[in-house]
Design goal:
This protein has a 22-stranded antiparallel β-barrel. The chain is mainly beta and about 725 residues long. It is globular, with a radius of gyration of 25 Å. It is built from four helices and 41 strands. Strand 10 and strand 11 form a beta hairpin.
């Protein structure tokens, strides 16, 4: 505890020191104005942006700021703190993976969210295996665009909406510029972010390299992460441009293993594994073409590929089974090796045009998508008895499959502006999916030859009413669809049973809300939502005849999630004095989600049990984040208070499982601090403390990598960074 108090005292001392220094520096009026003006930017997307239509949709814009979020540590709960209802699973404290979801959707690697970067997908296989192994450094983000379930028509049929990370653009007033930030922190954390950018004649460019490493908060949790990006854009005239982009992220992570409830209660920092490792590497080249035929007609074509892998070597057993030397072998037990290799190619084209029907102003966005994704999956290979990262196998893979998913789609959405205040936006998407699986399973004893084609339409409509210049009403209804994924056919671990009769999931999202500003004092966005999720896939805890618990992956039943999401922000200084040189902003993001099964049952060891009324797994009733941000020309600092309510890890709401792989995830409260000080125009220092009060908590239980069992959240940790931008 003494070391924890040292961290807290250090944070307070640094904050007061820089605050005092700031008072002695002459006020830079130009810089001050630019900082404060940024705070007045919209919190939601306009009705039309580029070739995209957002009218009537629930949207959010996030502007990353080192004084508001731990960007160097890729801390998702601080980055998304101003988005109501976001639930974040923490697989580790290193920010290696992005695990977010809302409204009852699956959070694991954001599997039910259409994750994009600069407009193109980064999910490993959008249809067959949509987990997101790629993750960019948050310091590279210029803007995050978030569209909820209404995104299903323009971007894809996922229930969880679309998140687009827009990477920073270069300063086009310079031929060459440099940005660099070096950050060090507790548990030997170190992050180095370095970028260059500029413009020469018609060519602009931006590139970065990021390296992050550390030992982790728990023993045997070391990591080593790298990310690369380059964007070269040629503006051949005032109408058109062509960009060539390349992105890569990779990391090697040592896995400390999951815990049982008893282990967590005794010592949440303990490790149960030291020979388990995980390594994904994802490469994404892309070509982006934009052309404006006229001020009213715009075209965008994006072609990108994704190729890479995820590999793991693990001793897989419950946390109550120690990884010790096998006396019969006089060595450790062999580990399991699992490998995926991904290869996909996607082209999306969008055309937006403004036109009139009589006196009715309209905007039409149309487009198509073609994607061909392949996964070569090799699982349950018998690995070595060693202790390091080694993918060698001594016995062939028990599962060896070639999986392919072809996805083609066409969509159209149209804004009809019936009056100068009221608009209606109907839309349709036609989707086709062709899935094939070939290979062997069951220790290579069973051949698999699976084919399935699906075609289906999705419909939706949105409405928007401009109450006045500063506020608007919005509403949307959109259908959604989720095909069951490869993992539903071939589980990699020995702890999960699979229903061979899995079904695709179908349903819809609906929103109705009111958003805007009241003067410069109050900003708000309050909405109600309803999600219908039919044939929802999920896990159940079952017992076999011998009394052993297993997790059963199946089509659980039909579910609903309904509730309220509210964002409010109060300007406590500038809202009442527009000439003030600083501001104090109090914000709150609140969400109530009533997620329940409305049908479904399970046969547990011969006994049928209804799931009606059971809570949706991974869905807390309440989430609330409250922040207080201080801003002036040199300082931005935020204190964030987070509350996430109790949730269950499986559909039958298991209270206790001896392995820790299922059960209750208790409610938790956290405090985070971010501080950024800018000086001498081009320099800054920042300081972050996460889990300031050193709470003992966890965000999830898991039956697979990197568990099984409870994954403890990190205790108090800090980092401090120094940066320059010239």
């Amino acid at each position: 505890m003494k070391s924890h108090f040292k961290y807290i005292l250090m944070a307070v001392a640094i904050a007061f020191t820089y605050a005092a220094n700031a008072q002695s520096i002459a006020r830079d009026t130009l810089k001050l104005d630019s900082v404060l003006i940024k705070e007045t930017r919209s919190k939601y997307l306009p009705e039309v942006f580029g070739q995209y239509i957002f009218s009537g949709k629930k949207t959010n814009i996030i502007y990353p700021d080192a004084g508001k979020a731990n960007l160097a540590g890729n801390n998702a709960r601080t980055l998304f703190s101003q988005v109501p209802g976001i639930n974040v699973w923490e697989m580790d404290g290193a920010g290696l993976q992005l695990n977010i979801g809302t409204r009852g959707t699956d959070i694991h690697r954001s599997i039910e969210t259409n994750i994009r970067q600069n407009g193109y997908n980064t999910n490993s296989d959008v249809v067959g295996y949509p987990e997101n192994h790629y993750n960019l450094p948050f310091q590279a983000i210029g803007e995050v665009q978030y569209v909820r379930g209404a995104s299903s028509l323009q971007f894809g049929s996922q229930f969880g909406g679309m998140v687009n990370f827009k990477i920073k653009e270069p300063d086009t007033t310079k031929a060459f510029g440099i940005e660099s930030e070096q950050t060090a922190g507790s548990n030997r954390f170190f992050n180095s972010y370095n970028a260059i950018g500029g413009k020469v004649d018609k060519v602009s460019y931006y590139a970065y390299f990021d390296a992050r490493s550390g030992n982790g908060w728990r023993p045997n949790a070391a990591f080593n992460y790298h990310a690369y990006y380059a964007n070269i854009k040629y503006q051949f005239n005032d109408k058109g441009s062509l960009s060539f982009q390349f992105s890569r992220s990779d990391y090697l992570q040592q896995i400390a293993g999951g815990l049982t409830d008893a282990m967590f209660a005794a010592n949440s920092r303990q490790s149960t594994r030291f020979r388990n490792f995980f390594m994904p590497a994802i490469n994404i080249p892309a070509i982006v073409f934009n052309y404006n035929f006229s001020p009213n007609t715009k075209l965008e074509i994006i072609s990108h590929a994704l190729f890479g892998e995820r590999s793991s070597v693990q001793y897989i057993a419950g946390p109550n089974v120690a990884d010790t030397v096998n006396k019969a072998l006089n060595t450790y037990n062999p580990r399991q090796v699992d490998r995926d290799h991904y290869k996909s190619f996607t082209t999306e084209a969008r055309l937006l045009t403004n036109y009139n029907i009589g006196t009715v102003s309209s905007t039409l966005s149309t487009g198509f998508r073609y994607a061909d994704g392949s996964t070569h999956r090799q699982q349950k290979g018998v690995g070595t008895t060693g202790t390091n990262y080694d993918l060698s196998i001594v016995k062939d893979y028990g599962i060896d499959l070639d999986l392919n998913a072809i996805n083609y789609a066409a969509f159209a959405e149209n804004i009809f502006r019936l009056t100068d205040k009221f608009s209606v936006t109907p839309g349709v998407r036609f989707e086709g999916i062709k899935t094939t699986i070939n290979g062997v399973v069951n220790k290579r004893s069973t051949n698999v030859d699976y084919k399935r084609d699906r075609t289906f339409p999705l419909f939706g409509t949105g409405m928007q009413y401009q109450v006045n210049n500063a506020t608007q009403l919005y509403g949307n209804f959109s259908q959604a669809y989720r095909p069951y994924i490869y993992a539903a056919v071939t589980p990699a671990d020995q702890l999960t049973l699979v229903d061979p009769n899995m079904k695709d999931s179908k349903g819809y999202n609906a929103d109705l809300g009111y958003r805007g500003k009241i003067g410069q004092v109050f900003t708000f966005d309050v909405n109600g939502f309803f999600v219908r999720y039919n044939d929802r896939a999920g896990t159940l805890t079952v017992q076999d005849a011998g009394g052993t618990n297993h997790l059963y992956l199946t089509t659980v039943g039909n579910a609903e999630a309904k509730g309220v999401e509210a964002y409010t922000e109060l300007s406590l200084i500038r809202g009442f004095d527009s000439q003030a040189s600083s501001d104090l902003r109090l914000f709150n993001t609140l969400a109530y989600t009533h997620g329940r099964y409305i049908s479904g049952s399970i046969n547990n060891n011969g006994t049928n049990a209804s799931l009606v009324g059971q809570k949706l797994e991974g869905t807390p009733d309440w989430t609330n984040r409250t922040g207080l941000t201080y801003i002036n020309g040199h300082i931005t600092s935020t204190v964030l208070f987070s509350y996430v309510g109790k949730q269950f890890s499986d559909a039958n709401n298991t209270v206790f499982n001896p392995t820790g792989a299922s059960g209750i995830v208790p409610a938790y409260k956290l405090v985070d601090l971010a501080f950024n000080y800018r000086f001498l125009k081009n320099y800054h220092v920042n300081f972050n403390v996460n889990n300031l009060t050193d709470q003992k908590y966890f965000t999830r239980r898991i039956n697979m990598y990197p568990g099984p069992g409870i994954l403890p959240g990190d205790g108090i940790s800090f980092n401090i960074g120094f940066g320059v931008k010239i």
